[in-house]
């Protein structure tokens, strides 16, 4: 099975975590695309879903999943999204697709975060994947110097603007031993809008597609 097969496996399993007659949140990325397709085809009735990107919204419309905004709802029962890396505590690096801010907002509005991924994303330590940091454009150099002083190698994601009109700096070679602390330290830098460490918003469940089949993992297990 290739990586896409494993993503699809996880995505299809995750439909079981979606309760009927509730509002849910839907992330962004190729694994989520498989989830949207699987949810649409499952016939499961949900009240609606908050999307985190135009790409996810377009696919939701294609599969007849009603879209609502965060302003329309008071509670999201579950949030389903992929990750660039996830550790055994289900803390993650996200934002490879640049939607980290919307993803963190919707995740924090949800009662349960179900992360879907193929086994290549499951790591002992976060940080091999470059950490995306969303920055206000005119603060980019200032923020980059501070990220350099923290030990990383920041690189502007050239030709990319976020949904909110900001830029992304990807921080390379930045091993993250204390995800929550590092998440907070980066967010304290003036000019940083958000960073891709999901330490506070760790997942509750990881649905992992592996060559041996799909595994459902909870924090610390
Ligand atoms: C987008 C994300 C995605 O969840 C992450 O990049 C994983 O993507 P994919 O499912 O395509 O591997 O955080 O901002």
TrEMBL record:
Per the Swiss-Prot or TrEMBL record, the active site comprises 103
Q: Does the keyword Isomerase apply?
A: yes
- Which InterPro entries does the UniProt record give? NagB/RpiA_transferase-like, Ribose5P_isomerase_typA_subgr, Ribose5P_isomerase_type_A
Keyword Cytoplasm assigned: no
Molecular functions per Gene Ontology: ribose-5-phosphate isomerase activity
Q: Which residues bind substrate?
A: 28-31, 81-84, 94-97, 121
Might you give the EC number(s) for this enzyme? 5.3.1.6
Q: In which pathway does it act?
A: Carbohydrate degradation; pentose phosphate pathway; D-ribose 5-phosphate from D-ribulose 5-phosphate (non-oxidative stage): step 1/1
Q: Which reaction does it catalyse?
A: aldehydo-D-ribose 5-phosphate = D-ribulose 5-phosphate
Q: Which UniProt keywords apply?
A: Isomerase
Name the Gene3D superfamilies on file.
Answer: 3.30.70.260, 3.40.50.1360
Q: Which domain of life is it from?
A: Bacteria
Query: What is the enzyme's main class?
Result: isomerase
Q: Name one GO cellular component term.
A: cytosol
Q: Its GO biological process terms?
A: D-ribose metabolic process; pentose-phosphate shunt, non-oxidative branch
What family does this belong to? Belongs to the ribose 5-phosphate isomerase family.
Known function: Catalyzes the reversible conversion of ribose-5-phosphate to ribulose 5-phosphate.
Q: Could you describe the subunit structure of this protein?
A: Homodimer.
Protein name in UniProt: Ribose-5-phosphate isomerase A
């Amino acid at each position: 099975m290739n990586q896409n097969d494993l993503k699809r496996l996880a995505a299809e399993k995750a439909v079981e975590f979606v309760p009927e007659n509730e509002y849910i949140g839907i992330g962004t990325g190729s694994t989520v695309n498989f989830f949207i397709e699987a949810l649409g085809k499952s016939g499961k009735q949900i009240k609606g879903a908050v999307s985190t990107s135009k790409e996810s919204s377009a696919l939701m419309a294609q599969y007849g999943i009603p879209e609502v905004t965060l302003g329309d709802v008071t509670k999201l029962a579950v949030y389903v999204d992929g990750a660039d890396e996830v550790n055994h505590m289900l803390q993650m690096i996200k934002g490879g697709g640049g939607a980290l801010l919307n993803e963190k907002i919707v995740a924090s509005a949800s009662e349960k975060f179900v992360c879907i991924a193929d086994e290549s994303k499951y790591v002992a330590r976060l940080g091999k994947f470059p950490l995306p940091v969303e920055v206000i454009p005119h603060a980019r150099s200032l923020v980059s110097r501070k990220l350099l002083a923290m030990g990383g190698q920041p690189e502007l994601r050239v030709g990319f603007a976020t949904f909110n009109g900001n830029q992304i700096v990807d921080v390379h070679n930045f091993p993250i031993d204390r995800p929550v602390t590092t998440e907070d330290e980066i967010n304290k830098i003036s000019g940083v809008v958000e960073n891709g460490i999901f330490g506070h918003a760790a997942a509750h469940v990881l649905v992992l597609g592996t060559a041996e089949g799909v595994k459902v993992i909870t924090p610390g297990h």
